[in-house]
Specification:
CATH superfamily: Vaccinia Virus protein VP39
Oligomer: single chain
Structural class: alpha/beta
Largest sheet: 7 strands, mixed
Low-confidence stretches: 194-200
Shape: globular
CATH architecture: 3-Layer(aba) Sandwich
Mean pLDDT: 90
Number of domains: 1
Order of helices and strands: EHEEHEEEHEEHEEHE
Radius of gyration: 16 Å
Helix content: 25-40%
Strand order of the largest sheet: 5-4-2-6-7-10-9
CATH class: Alpha Beta
CATH topology: Rossmann fold
């Protein structure tokens, strides 16, 4: 997994939206990202150098991550609604239970905080992952959770065949977590090598 200058620009844009700087950013990162444009190695090292209070969540244990399985509910009260920025840069597409993955993202994000996604677009990143997304996925997600949809676009910065869906969401209030039944409207906008009718 890796972060490029584009992802850093998404973090900056999100912080500008809530009038914060890097020094006041408390960030939860899905996966232990690598920085592709600097000698820092891990994004934890790079973002910490900017003053960000950074924690990453993954199953692999690398780079001082909080070891969790994103496919099951994570309910440690020390981390619930703690972060004013939560990033999903190329992680959710590898998590086998999409409902719980996005539930966890919401659970980590503070009220008023930002959730930033940059994940594979349908018909791109062949062989890379288990799931692919389209723009309607995030339109539906924002309606169900009543998020403020700040930004939604196709990221083509990595060239042909490697386009992603880029989305910034603002969590406006404490929501009752959506049920798996309600999440089905999002599932039909996720692409996997199984018949869509199995998701209904």
């Amino acid at each position: 997994m890796g972060m490029h200058k584009y992802e850093i620009s998404l973090i900056k844009k999100s912080l500008d939206f809530i009038n914060l700087d890097f020094e006041n950013c408390v960030l939860a990162e899905l996966g232990n990202q690598r920085i592709r444009f600097s000698p820092f190695g891990s994004s934890k090292s790079y973002l910490s150098s900017l003053g960000v209070k950074h924690e990453s969540f993954d199953w692999n244990g690398f780079d001082d991550v909080k070891v969790i399985n994103l496919a099951i509910p994570y309910e440690d009260k020390k981390f619930i609604e703690k972060y004013n920025v939560v990033t999903n840069f190329g992680t959710s597409e590898h998590v086998y239970d999409q409902y719980w993955c996005f539930w966890n993202i919401d659970n980590l994000c503070s009220i008023g905080g930002m959730m930033i996604h940059n994940i594979p677009l349908k018909d791109n990143w062949s062989g890379h992952c288990d799931y692919w997304y389209n723009l309607d996925f995030f339109k539906n997600l924002s309606k169900i959770y009543e998020y403020n949809l700040v930004s939604l676009e196709i990221d083509s910065s990595r060239g042909p065949g490697k386009h992603s869906v880029s989305c910034i969401l603002n969590k406006t209030k404490k929501n009752k977590h959506m049920t798996e039944e309600k999440f089905k409207i999002c599932l039909i906008e996720i692409y996997k090598c199984i018949p869509v009718q199995l998701l209904l």
